[in-house]
């Protein structure tokens, strides 16, 4: 695993500052890059020639039953086991409090024998309520997009291709509502797989399971269509298949992860920023500029093509779409210079929205696969928040003033600054937000707001230091044991390059959606579609290669891997040109 | 029943928080129990046998230091579980050892001493050589010695029976920990003749146990597990219509 310390290379790269990058609104403007976990998975599958095959497909005419897909990597064999069942409409909810789903599925290490299948069929459909087997690496569930599903089955059963317009609103047949790994409900701990050749990268096992579900979704609609009208049923065209992704519906449950894994998040950001710095440092030639123009054009088309319900996000997308036209004009007018990319970012920083700035960063990273792809191996982190009890308090004070200035300078006394509190509900332990002083549960608040805690340490530290100028960290802790968790965190995170997400999570203006988007961007989610301020739908693997694409060994990796910002098949890419 | 290590740690963390442990201390206590369980040393049993004591100790996170100088500290455990304030007492010794090269800490009158091994493991992982020693008040008298090499989270453990019981009236309810920054402190029997080796766990045995636990899951007593989940539930807020809106719209 990568050490979370600045490297020699970082000193020569022009990394953006933590104050810039770790701002919550900026993190909430991130787009997926080629380093995102979904892209990384398909690249790995291609490079290592993973074989995916369906070994069992026992569905009835309605598509209910079970299916098993085998994943053969160069060194190991895995299976994705999927259970499909009838679900009454009134039971279909994407909330974590749901108790049944259209499909449930899991990724299993090794072979699936009858005994394991029996145990899984009794427990996987129950999800949280079941006891899962230790050979399961991932467990998940998904609900149908009812409109798309029926439209696809009807069209195929009548020998037609479904109208691609259906996929503009929701680019999938299924959307997952949680994808669990790391020991949840009895499945394998991450500790067990992090040394494996195939799934040592964070969320790679989860991505693999979701990718196979995408394949199943197509096989299932084709199967039902065939059962409905064997004489006329068609199969889905390759273009439409490729444009089908898997949706995901995510709520506040994802937010605590960002706070509870600060070293991992800091590392993800560091890798992204290193990639950006490497890209910006390249000397562009005409072909690089042409490629950048083409990527801007595709991204603009993607934005124009993306329908979102949320007014705020719609405005952001519209603005980014317009600004991309300005970027293309700028690129065509500015002389090709060694520092072109830095000039572009400097201009964007003063003239364009955060959404567009971060989109451009994604596109620049996309330009230089040979220079940045190796960074993908550094996305892991050893997560240990360690105390340094012998650190002089004066040094801890300096750390707080240098790395946590955003926390200790903030005011947490006014009502708006302490408006929200985070807690876990008794309903499936769902994380929720309550209004302080108005809602019950404040005494059970989750300690997610690092800023106020850091300020509390600072205040007690200053007082103790006045009385004992040579005191150590342990002296502060002996006097204030309640600071143990946050002091550990402060000392550990100060040694990382990017440190903490800089936001007061209590503040009335804090937008949890930014936390969700930051994580989803690293996972590789497109079509960011908020539903209110605490719930979002996204799409994974839309535009990603099909299994049949892997069989064509003549395809160069750069073509195979070029599926960021997917646009509707047949869409006019020039439409967005100025 | 079988559970994962992450489940054990997560439920323990919430259970200790539900008992009233402060956040960082709940984290540490959970890690101490999970460490023992994952190395096949039955941390859940050790926890369960003193659960009432743990609950009573929840608020006692501040160690009562009776004496300290640059190299040595003596702490009164006040008959509480090592899960409550053992972490801070050990950090105190760690700080001294880092500054002075070697430090000794005696925690007197403490309970559930086995569980302290999980925290010692973390100190060793941070580069400290650590040996802990304690006696069990039973007949015949036994001694337990646990030694960690710096940068190794896995100890060597020995339990000896003493042939002759010394005549003293000092209660055997403390633990002595020696930390050395630069040299090993492994438990090596001084004289085979005077002691009978009752139990021995070498690093390789313990690593094998952990590997097995990660592969098969950790076996726990369902009743104890349920007890912990009941404590953990105390950290949860009862649902209401108002709280349901706190997670955003249903669809």
Characterization of the model:
The complex is a heterodimer of chains A (578) and B (251). Chain A has helices at residues 8-12, 18-21, 24-27, 37-47, 114-123, 146-157, 166-169, 190-193, 204-228, 238-243, 255-260, 262-280, 286-305, 311-333, 340-351, 354-367, 369-372, 393-403, 405-408, 450-467, 473-479, 484-493, 512-523, 547-551, 557-560; strands spanning 51-59, 65-72, 77-84, 103-109, 136-144, 172-180, 245-250, 420-424, 431-435, 526-530, 536-540. Chain A has 578 residues and is α+β, with helices and mostly antiparallel strands. In chain A, strand 2 (65-72) and strand 3 (77-84) form a beta hairpin. In chain A, helix 12 (262-280) crosses helix 16 (354-367), helix 15 (340-351) runs antiparallel to helix 16 (354-367) and helix 18 runs antiparallel to helix 20. The radius of gyration of chain A is 25 Å and the shape is globular. Chain B has one domain (2-238): 2-Layer Sandwich (Ribosomal Protein S8, Chain: A, domain 1). Chain B has 9 helices and 10 strands. In chain B, the strands form 2 sheets. In chain B, strands 2-3-4-8-5-6-7-9 form an 8-stranded mixed β-sheet. The longest helix of chain B is centred in the middle third of the chain and has 19 residues, at 82-100. The radius of gyration of chain B is 19 Å and the shape is globular. The two termini of chain B are 36 Å apart. The chains are: A alpha+beta (578), B alpha+beta (251). At the A-B interface, helix 8, strand 9, helix 21 and helix 22 of A face strand 1, helix 1, helix 2, helix 5 and helix 7 of B.
